[in-house]
Amino acid sequence: MSVLGIVPARGGSKGVPGKNLAPVGGEPLLVHAIRAALAAGTVDRVVCSTDDDEIAAVAREAGAEVVMRPAELARDDSPTEDALLHVLDALGPPEPEYVVTLELTSPLRSPGLIDACVRLAQERGADAVITVAESRAVHGRLEDGLFVPLAPGQPRRRQLREPLYRESSTVYVTRTAYLRETRSVVGDHVYAHIVPEEEAIDINSEQDLVVADTLIRRRAGELA
Q: Which residues on neighbouring strands pair with residue 7, listed in sequence order?
């Protein structure tokens, strides 16, 4: 059984310019994803998909293979799945049984988390596994200015509330045949692995970068 780890890393970033190479904990954001994938015992091969020469150079130095994607697969509205399929086509046969998609925006993801997700997919024979993070917040929508809870009747005390779960985008494991058939990393029947809130951090702003940098340095013992 073979498992291919893919790190999608296009050059453009609207929310945080240059995000993929932004320093976090003393290393470019890209490097954290690659090192976690390389350290995961279940991942046989690690590839970075990019359209950017500088990103490609950093990825190679970190130990990943690189597949350069064409510009039409690196637009703001380009689906990640198209980049994944392009990597599979570029590498050629034999294809892996599973593709592990590792977005750059989760720099605190551990190799152990990747392994746990892959093993869950293998044990269940799953088409897809995603990571989720627990939330005990009261979520709702606004209707004519009124707050309407999605789960009515939740206790006021946070500790007593029934937990809900959000997709964390930390790790996606997808059977390659399923990815080719549906062009999606998830499906109607998808297994979930619960991750700690720290590993579920998703960087989409400058503030997120600061938080992640602080947590990584604290984990490394650089901060008291």
A: 48
Q: Which CB contacts under 8 angstroms, 24+ apart, belong to 125-128?
A: 126/173, 126/175, 126/190, 126/191, 127/174, 127/175, 127/178, 127/187, 127/189, 127/190, 128/172, 128/173, 128/174, 128/175, 128/178, 128/185, 128/186, 128/187, 128/189, 128/190, 128/191
Structural domain boundaries enclosing 69: 3-132+167-218
Instruction: Tell which wins on pLDDT, 193 or 205.
Output: 193
- Within-domain flag for 125: yes
Alpha-helix residue ranges (DSSP H) falling in the chain = 29-39, 53-62, 80-91, 111-124, 176-182, 206-219
Q: What is the pLDDT of residue 224?
A: 46
Query: Residue 174 falls within a domain, yes or no?
Result: yes
This prediction's pTM: 0.91
**Eight-class DSSP state of 96:** P
Q: How many independent structural domains does the chain possess?
A: 1
Give the CATH number, domain containing residue 40: 3.90.550.10
Quick check: is 138 in a domain? Answer: no
Instruction: Identify whether 18 is part of a domain.
Output: yes
Place of tokens 């209707």: 143
Strand partners of residue 165: 134
